[in-house]
Amino acid sequence: MIISSILVSFPPFIQHLALARFDYSGVGNSEGNLEECTVGKWRKDVLSVIDDIAVGPQILVGSSLGGWLILHAAIARPERVVALVGVATAADTLVTQFSQLPVEVKKEVEIKGMWTLPSKYHEDGFYCLKYSFIKEAEHHCLLHSPIPVNCPVRLLHGMKDDVVPWHTSMQVADQVLSTDVDVILRKDSDHRMKEKADIQLLTYTIDDLIDKLSTIVN
């Protein structure tokens, strides 16, 4: 699971672009304890970067949980966010995964207060999430109703993703209000989409959005 976002500043009539990449609290190089984090806190992290660091209109690029959070950022800051690029977008995924557990397992997690989630992407082989994290995350689910995002949206997903099903991106595309939505599936790509061809696709997708938005501005 990659929890990160990229904000690409898009100042009208200016050729160069500024880029800010960051990890959320408790993840990657950022300070904080993962066990003390919530989806709501991570949402505030994104909005803080938009409000306090980024300048001008923004193209938001989010991977995995970052893809979920950029949707929230677009809802909260529609005047600042001009486009979204989601990579293996994990909208609602943790809540969905938990809800699909057997009843006895969910009860055990509730009693212990901790959910051990296996992951080959963590050095320990698993993530430890508090039960309270899941309950808080339920308040940020988006797929149960139309998503009020009207900017261009591009969703990239590997069909060999064993963490977030590619169908999740299809659900997001179906629920966002924007009519300018593309879902691009890569047959042999996994969750991280880090191969050369995957990175090229991401680069081309961002470049295409910049060209499109430049045309609109001019």
Structural write-up:
By secondary structure, this protein is of the alpha/beta class. The protein has a single domain (3-91, 141-217), classed as Rossmann fold, CATH 3.40.50.1820. The protein has seven helices and eight strands. It has helices spanning 39-52, 65-76, 93-99, 103-112, 131-137, 167-175, 196-217, and strands at residues 3-9, 19-23, 58-64, 81-87, 114-118, 126-130, 153-158, 181-186. It has a six-stranded mixed β-sheet with strand order 2-1-3-4-7-8, with helices on both faces. A two-stranded antiparallel sheet has the order 5-6. α1 (39-52) packs across α2 (65-76). The chain starts with a strand and ends with a helix. InterPro entries: AB_hydrolase_fold, ABHD10_acyl-thioesterase, Peptidase_S9_cat. One of its GO terms (biological process) is proteolysis. Residues 60-197 form the Peptidase S9 prolyl oligopeptidase catalytic domain. Pfam families: Peptidase_S9 (PF00326). Belongs to the AB hydrolase superfamily.
Outline:
It catalyses: mycophenolic acid O-acyl-beta-D-glucuronide + H2O = mycophenolate + D-glucuronate + H(+); S-hexadecanoyl-L-cysteinyl-[protein] + H2O = L-cysteinyl-[protein] + hexadecanoate + H(+). The chain is 37% helix and 22% strand. The protein has 218 residues and is an alpha/beta fold.
